[in-house]
Design the sequence.
């Protein structure tokens, strides 16, 4: 393990180089050289340092795997939609229930006023 | 008067309180709550009153309210299971009430428990005043449970309907049934309903949707049918109208539909809707939809995964916007539904961004725990990655000073990176930090077994031996120098080991120790051996010079001091010691000769020359020398380097002169300070000094020091202001115990300080004994 173990949320090197997480080595190299041409160290030293650091973090597979541990991972895709298997048949039980529903008395019809104890009641 | 009034008020309050707690009063309050629609409060109050009531009328009233509250709660419940729970409770208190038994039977039916509803209906049928429809329901239940039924007490429509239903239950040909029902009088005002449903059963694709819709609107039963809206939803779904199906099924659910096929179908429909929202990136709406239908708690794998993905997306969006708190909240929510290690990685990073190091460490640990174990899995972690994470977790713990946890994590890291020397060094450092010196030593020895020439390990082992004092560190320093001949720390440590050996005079064995002590010649030989090993090392030269001086060889001594000076002309500590020793050995002319080189030292403060002058004064090497050095100090201060000022240097000089009992000199420099820098704060500081030392008047001293700070700040004399502040702090702090004074050498918990104290006390005992 090298000494560059991350101790702070890392700046995404892919973002710095304008790449996605699946970029190939060749793509990383190409992006780096293009950016360096735009931001040479003598004119843009800070920007160049960021680009160089990002490139160093991604240039070999080992350091790329290590830095991946300390980057926020993009969310996974939505799981594939299951083909729903609806049961749209008419059930005999439902017909029985319908018959019951047609004759039953709704509960609201049976609501009563509660009885209240008379004033003379002690209750101690 | 006022007292009387107060007592009356207290008594009235007590009376009101007692009144409130009377069962009868509680029943009244319960009834009022029931009237206002708060069945839950009514139930609580009436149940309490029922327990406390000790007269029949209150007890009966309370019982009525409890039963009514349960009934109303059942009527309000959408879920039939909740309804049944309340009805069961009510029936337990009033098994004779027909309405309770009736609705219990209906609810059992709704839950598909018709065999349990049957005895209730049978009981209801035997009651003197029978409810309308009960006879039909009983016979229907008999038919549904495969028992013989009779049409004696039924109307023609009821009997016809029952026959049709029995035929359906027995699997009769639907086409024939359809034909029959066309000419039959069936239950309900709209017999077409049965016809339509039978049509749906026979020919699902040609179902008359519009007709069913119209029939449903005409039906509108007060209690709300669950079956009709369910089949409206079925018809809508067959036509691909998901939104209509969703609305219809919501009504069915509200009416208490709970059949397994309904629950399953509705779940499928919601999943499909949620999936559509997810595909459009409407994650908030997806979560809201599932929450609205109380589906966030059910253990359907597809829904659970969808929810986790939704929260992961929302967390990611928040993280991109630097809103780590929201990100952590969503990822935490997702983590309860997903086993993904990346999710815990994100959560750990969010916790770190929020400075929550312990939760971050927990999340990292969870991430490691959840990693796929198969090495060919696309999310598998390599040993190097696992070691990196454990090391990172250790750093999280270090931030909150949980050193023991950090040490455990480092050891875990070492398991996955056994050849990582740097990691072992870190483990040794941390072991030492928590006072486990032996563990540190073992770790370093293990490390050196892997690589005998690993300098960081050798240096630490040497320092460990040096600190503990029970092993000779010199061979370790020699091993370092064999690998890196110019290793500054090892050179210095080896030289100091020689010096220590020469200076060792510890009377461990009393009188016999004199036999073991080295002679002067042996000491000289030892230092010369050291100089052969470390040619021109100033510490060895200075020590050799001191030895020569003690042996009354001033010329040799001066030669050594001069060599030391010339060997390290840039090191103020060496130059200061060489000057002092040269003056002692009568080498003043050499000091005068070499003084210009001392002026070229890169960064001495004026304080360096103040100290050299103080030492000369202390050893009475001549006031002229002291004044010369202090003149150097003032000249250096005049250059204004390193925030030195003349006033500050003068204050230091005066303090040194007073301290070394040279009041005349002190007065002279004080006069210079007051004349040349009257508003520097230095005058007040010196007055404070005198107030403490001459009159022990701390209060006055503190006043003067506060004044000195104010004046110094105004005069831009930061040195004087800081000095005044430090002295004030010392004067205000309580006297420290000897143990406290010894604690700092030991660092955490002062172990080293205590060891030092033990050793001193041991030595004191031995001296007393001798």
Sequence:
């Amino acid at each position: 393990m090298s000494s560059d173990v991350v101790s702070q949320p890392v700046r995404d090197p892919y973002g710095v180089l304008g790449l996605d997480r699946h970029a190939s080595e060749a793509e990383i190299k190409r992006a780096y050289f293009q950016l360096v041409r735009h931001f040479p160290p003598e004119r843009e030293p800070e920007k160049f340092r960021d680009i160089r650091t990002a490139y160093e973090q991604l240039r070999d597979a080992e350091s790329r795997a290590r830095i991946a541990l300390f980057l926020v991972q993009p969310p996974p895709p939505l799981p594939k939609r299951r083909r729903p298997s609806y049961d749209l048949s008419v059930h005999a039980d439902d017909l029985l229930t319908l018959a019951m529903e047609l004759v039953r008395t709704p509960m609201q019809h049976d609501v009563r006023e509660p009885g209240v104890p008379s004033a003379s009641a002690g209750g101690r | 008067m006022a007292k009387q009034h107060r007592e009356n008020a207290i008594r009235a309050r007590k009376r009101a309180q007692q009144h409130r707690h009377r069962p009868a009063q509680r029943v009244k309050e319960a009834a009022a709550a029931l009237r206002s629609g708060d069945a839950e409060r009514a139930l609580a109050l009436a149940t309490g009153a029922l327990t406390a009531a000790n007269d029949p009328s209150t007890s009966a009233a309370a019982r009525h309210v409890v039963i009514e509250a349960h009934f109303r709660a059942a009527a309000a419940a959408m879920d039939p299971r909740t309804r049944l729970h309340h009805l069961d409770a009510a029936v337990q208190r009033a098994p004779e009430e027909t309405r309770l038994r009736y609705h219990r039977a209906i609810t059992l039916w709704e839950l598909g428990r018709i065999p349990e509803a049957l005895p209730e209906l049978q009981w209801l049928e035997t009651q003197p005043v029978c409810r309308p429809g009960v006879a039909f329901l009983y016979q229907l239940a008999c038919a549904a449970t495969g028992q013989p039924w009779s049409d004696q007490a039924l109307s023609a429509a009821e009997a016809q309907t029952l026959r049709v239903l029995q035929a359906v239950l027995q699997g009769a040909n639907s086409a024939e049934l359809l034909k029959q029902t066309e000419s039959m009088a069936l239950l309900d005002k709209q017999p077409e309903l049965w016809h339509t449903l039978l049509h749906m059963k026979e020919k699902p694709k040609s179902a008359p949707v519009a007709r069913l819709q119209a029939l449903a609107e005409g039906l509108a039963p007060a209690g709300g049918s669950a079956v009709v809206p369910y089949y409206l939803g079925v018809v809508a779904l067959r036509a691909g109208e998901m939104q209509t199906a969703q609305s219809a099924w919501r009504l069915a659910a509200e009416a208490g539909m709970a059949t397994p096929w309904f629950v399953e179908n509705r779940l499928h429909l919601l999943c499909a809707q949620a999936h559509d929202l997810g595909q459009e990136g409407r994650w908030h709406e997806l979560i809201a939809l599932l929450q609205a239908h109380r589906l966030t708690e059910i253990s359907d794998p597809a829904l659970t995964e969808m929810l986790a993905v939704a929260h992961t997306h929302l967390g990611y969006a928040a993280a991109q916007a630097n809103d780590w708190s929201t990100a952590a909240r969503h990822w935490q929510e997702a983590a309860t539904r997903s086993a993904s290690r990346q999710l815990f990685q994100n959560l750990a990073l969010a916790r770190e961004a929020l400075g929550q190091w312990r939760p971050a460490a927990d999340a990292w640990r969870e991430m490691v725990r959840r990693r796929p174990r198969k090495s060919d899995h696309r999310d598998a972690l390599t040993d190097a990655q696992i070691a990196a994470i454990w090391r990172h977790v250790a750093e999280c713990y270090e931030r909150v000073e949980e050193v023991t946890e950090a040490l455990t994590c480092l050891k875990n890291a070492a398991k996955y990176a056994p050849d990582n020397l740097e990691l072992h060094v870190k483990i040794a450092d941390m072991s030492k930090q928590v006072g486990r010196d032996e563990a540190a030593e073992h770790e370093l020895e293990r490390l050196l077994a892997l690589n005998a020439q690993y300098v960081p390990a050798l240096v630490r082992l040497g320092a460990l031996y040096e600190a503990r004092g029970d092993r000779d560190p010199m061979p370790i320093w020699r091993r370092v120098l064999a690998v890196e001949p110019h290793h500054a720390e090892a050179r210095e440590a080896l030289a100091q080991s020689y010096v220590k050996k020469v200076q060792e005079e510890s009377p461990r064995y009393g009188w016999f120790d004199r036999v073991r002590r080295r002679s002067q010649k042996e000491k000289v030989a030892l230092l010369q051996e050291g100089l052969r090993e470390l040619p021109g090392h100033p510490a060895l030269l200075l020590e050799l010079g001191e030895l020569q001086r003690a042996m009354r060889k001033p010329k040799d001594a001066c030669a050594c001091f001069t060599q030391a000076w010339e060997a390290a002309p840039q090191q103020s500590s060496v130059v200061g010691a060489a000057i002092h020793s040269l003056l002692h050995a009568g080498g003043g002319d050499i000091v005068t000769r070499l003084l210009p080189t001392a002026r070229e030292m890169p960064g001495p403060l004026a304080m360096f020359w103040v100290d050299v002058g103080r030492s000369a004064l202390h050893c009475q090497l001549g006031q002229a020398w002291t004044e010369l050095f202090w003149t150097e100090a003032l000249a250096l201060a005049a250059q204004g380097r390193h925030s030195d000022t003349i006033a500050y240097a003068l204050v230091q000089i005066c303090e040194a002169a007073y301290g070394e009992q040279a009041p005349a000199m002190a007065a002279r420099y004080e006069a210079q300070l007051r004349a040349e820098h009257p508003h520097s704060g230095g005058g007040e500081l010196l007055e404070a000094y005198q107030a403490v030392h001459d009159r022990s008047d701390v209060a006055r001293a503190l006043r003067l020091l506060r004044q000195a700070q104010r004046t110094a700040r105004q005069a831009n004399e930061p040195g004087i202001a800081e000095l005044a502040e430090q002295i004030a702090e010392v004067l205000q702090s309580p006297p420290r115990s000897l143990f406290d004074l010894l604690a700092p050498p030991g660092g955490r918990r002062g172990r080293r300080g205590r060891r030092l104290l033990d050793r001193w006390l041991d030595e004191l005992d031995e001296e007393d004994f001798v």
